[in-house]
Amino acid sequence: MKIYGFQNYQYKYNQFPLKSQTSFTSLKLKNDENNFSDTCFYRDIPTLLQTTKLLNENFPNGTTIMDFAASNGEEAISLYSLLNDKANNKYAIYSYDKSDKAVELGQKGIYTVFSEKSNDYFLIPDCYYSKQLKDKFGMLKELRRCFSEIMEPAKEPNYTINDPNYINMLHKSPHFQIKYFKIKDEYKDKIKIQKGNINNIEKLLPDRKVGAILFRNAMYIETGNYSINEFSLAEDLNINKKEIIEKIVDKVYNKLLPGGLFVIGDIEKDHIYIADNHVKDKDKYFIRNYGVAICKQPLLWNALEKDDRFEPVFYKKVDSPCALREDMKVPTIWRKKIN
Fold first, then answer.
1. pTM for the predicted model, two decimal places
2. 31 CB-near residues (< 8 Å, 6+ apart)
3. Rg of the Cα trace of the chain?
4. How far apart are CA 182 and CA 299, in angstroms?
5. CB contact at 8 A, 188 and 106
6. Per residue in 291-335, pLDDT tens?
7. Cβ contact 63:55 at 8 Å
8. 3-class DSSP state for residue 167?
9. Of 5, 53, 63, 293, which cross-links 284 as Cys (Cβ 3.0–4.6 Å)?
């Protein structure tokens, strides 16, 4: 029963101001064209914490985890730090990205955290902005503890990690700080960073199935999907988004162990799909203010629910730059059903 489908929401686009959710994070050099990928430690903390809880419950003896579109491995490090138990180091994470440069940076193994324009600046407890935070339940303190358990300070490397123009701009702030870290030697073999694509998942680790697959904030890349407020007439509407998504979901299903988790993103364009030319008119919803038609049904959710293979097990508020209904929630963790 689809109690969370888009047909159950009334789109009220002019009743809320546009949400400007600037998410400047640790910008990592991805290629030689000055193209940078925004990534940071502990992005979407609620989903990471719930993923950790479910993995401990479903796979108490450990399992292999695959993380795709993972840039230089900061997400994999974040998840591993939450799963880590020094007494029983039982989880291993394989981190994959399509970018040669991102993989190269991850394999070199030096990471940055900086303030102020970074979502992980709280990992610098003595910086000006961290001191302004209220850690009511001690969550940030616990995240720092988990981080310091597997990471240690490092010297500034002799190669470029961050966008130099962006860092130079931040240097103008009197409160700017930047710190360098690396994985402790005893944990290096638990996080493996390699080149890989979720479309070829069946060729990776061919001798095993896994307990979790992360593919967060990346399905929109495979489908060429834009946010509603990013849409332009230049978008290629001949792409069959439904077909692309179903092929990926089929491969994910076959790779997961029973009870395994598929963890997806919380951004709008991973959940709300602009209707392509393969979508029938009766299945479209036209958003007049943006001059764009969207699919009435969420294509990714439909593919996951097909044949009763997956069930949603965790919801969170959508991270949308558009003026969507403010109480709209999306499922970011799905579990493969045990037949």
1. 0.89
2. 99, 100, 101
3. 20
4. 39
5. no
6. 889 998 899 999 999 999 999 999 987 756 554 555 678 999 999
7. yes
8. helix
9. 293
Q: Which residues contact 265 (CB under 8 A, 6 or more apart)?
A: 44, 215, 216, 217, 218, 219, 332
**According to the model, what pLDDT value does residue 283 have?**
95
Instruction: Give residue 20's pLDDT band: very low, low, confident or very high (50, 70, 90).
Output: very low
A 10 A CB-CB count for 76 gives 24
3-state SS, residue 210: strand
Specify the amino acid at residue 123: L
One-character DSSP codes across 212-238:
EEEETT-HHHHHT---GGG--TTS-TT
Phi, then psi, of 176 in degrees rounded to 5:
-70, 135
* Residues in contact with 146: Cβ distance below 8 Å, sequence separation at least 6, in sequence order: 81, 82, 84
Instruction: Report which of 96, 67, 105 is spatially closest to residue 195, judged by C-alpha positions.
Output: 96
Helix (H) or strand (E) holding 180: strand 177-183
Phi, psi of 7 (to 5 degrees): -65, -15
Work out the angle at residue 67's Cα, subtended by the Cα atoms of residues 268 and 34, and round it to the nearest 5 degrees: 70
- Judge whether 37 and 182 are in contact, CB under 8 Å: no
Q: How many CB atoms sit inside 10 A of residue 45's CB?
A: 15
Position of tokens 């579109």?
A: 69
Nearest to 75 by CA among 209, 267, 217, 201: 217
Residue showing tokens 């700017």: 176
* Helix H or strand E segment including 242: helix 241-255
Q: Which residues are bridge partners to 179 per DSSP?
A: 113
Please report, to the nearest 10 degrees, the dihedral formed by the alpha carbons of residues 287, 289, 292, 294 taken in order: -30
- Residue 108 pLDDT class (50, 70, 90 cuts): very high
Helix/strand/coil for 284: strand
d(C-alpha 234, C-alpha 232), whole Å:
5
Residue 13 φ then ψ, to 5°: -70, -25
Amino acid identity, position 144: R
